[in-house]
Amino acid sequence: MNAVENAVCILHKGPYSSLGETYSYVFEWIKVNDYKVIDNPRESYIDGIWNKKSENEWLTEIQIPVESI
């Protein structure tokens, strides 16, 4: 994994099956705020099946490397 200078990060709380909604939101935010994506998104799984009983408590951080347009 390479270091990046700037990234847009967002926390997603809930099941992995609804990650697409969070990706849609953050990509629209990137566009509206005059950034461009410069590398693949990354996901950091903070809470999940290993420590939470309910999928609604799962926590994932999405990190998208960007630069200003």
Structure summarized in a few sentences:
It is built from one helix and four strands; from the N terminus they run E-H-E-E-E. The chain has 69 residues and is of the alpha+beta class.
Q: What is the succession of H and E elements?
A: EHEEE
Mean pLDDT across all amino acids: 96
The CA-CA distance between the termini, in Å, is 24 Å
How many strands appear in the DSSP assignment? 4
Helix content: 10-25%
Q: What's the total helix number?
A: 1
* Helix/strand structural class: alpha+beta
Low-confidence stretches: none
Q: Give the percentage of residues in beta strands.
A: 35-45%
Query: What overall form do the CA principal axes indicate?
Result: elongated
**Total domain count:** 1
Radius of gyration: 13 Å
Major sheet summary line: 4 strands, antiparallel
List the helices and strands and how they pair.
Layout: E1 7-13, H1 19-32, E2 35-37, E3 42-47, E4 59-68
Antiparallel strand pairs: 1-4, 2-4, 3-4
